[in-house]
Amino acid sequence: MPRAEFFAHFGILHVRAFFDAGTCERLREEIRGAVGEAATILRAGAKEVDEEVRKVTGTDVSPTVQALVADRLTAITPDLERHFGVTLSGYEEPSFLRYRAGDFYVAHRDVLDDPGDAAWLRPRKVSVVVFLNEPGETLDPPGYGGGLLTFAGLLDDPKLRAVGVPLVAETGLLVAFRSDMLHAVTPVTHGERYTIVTWFYQ
């Protein structure tokens, strides 16, 4: 499977050690101990739970952790603007996600065009995922199986455009991509996958 460098050919930005290993461990512990509920999707302008489309737990972390993440995201905003050639005015409140065995997210885009959809979705320009752990056969150090972030529409061959190309996650790795890129998370097979996601807008 290709590592982050491969995806640079398709305009996807990556930053290794966006969080160091110790911070990732702290964030995983925070998410693991936080109150959680099923993450939602947006459909016809309303948030709803649909575990046929997205099955993952969103968690409520402490204000201290929220501030830590906010500071780092604010600091990287100029780099995102330069890379994607856009002016960004802010980002949505980050989601702190815990994928357990069987959890997934079907192929989707982070922008919607239906007039009935929530207006605040349309300005999304850049999607960001930060991996807090990485795949592994064992759970110590914390690893997981499956849970691959995959991108579709990258290959020129029309017969292959729907094929998802998986990215190899690394602890502390940030990846950023245009919000209209088709992407998915394959089902987790074992362990728990921890990520932070947010969306920058103009």
Structural class: alpha+beta
Q: How helical, in percent, are the residues?
A: 10-25%
Low-confidence stretches: none
Helical region count? 3
Mean pLDDT: 91
What can you tell me about this protein's structure?
With 202 residues, the protein is of the alpha+beta class. It has a single domain, classed as q2cbj1_9rhob like domain (Jelly Rolls), CATH 2.60.120.620. It contains 3 helices and 17 strands. It has helices spanning 4-7, 21-33, 63-84; strands at 13-15, 35-38, 41-43, 46-48, 54-55, 57-60, 90-91, 95-99, 104-108, 124-131, 144-146, 149-151, 165-167, 174-178, 183-185, 188-191, 193-201. Strand 3 and strand 4 form a beta hairpin. The longest helix has 22 residues, at 63-84. The termini are far apart. The mean pLDDT is 91.
Short description:
The chain has 202 residues and is α+β, with helices and mostly antiparallel strands. It has helices at 4-7, 21-33, 63-84, and strands at 13-15, 35-38, 41-43, 46-48, 54-55, 57-60, 90-91, 95-99, 104-108, 124-131, 144-146, 149-151, 165-167, 174-178, 183-185, 188-191, 193-201. The radius of gyration is 16 Å and the shape is globular.
Question: Topology of this protein?
Answer:
Elements: H1 4-7, E1 13-15, H2 21-33, E2 35-38, E3 41-43, E4 46-48, E5 54-55, E6 57-60, H3 63-84, E7 90-91, E8 95-99, E9 104-108, E10 124-131, E11 144-146, E12 149-151, E13 165-167, E14 174-178, E15 183-185, E16 188-191, E17 193-201
Antiparallel strand pairs: 1-14, 2-6, 3-4, 5-9, 6-8, 7-17, 8-17, 9-15, 10-14, 10-17, 11-16, 12-13, 12-15
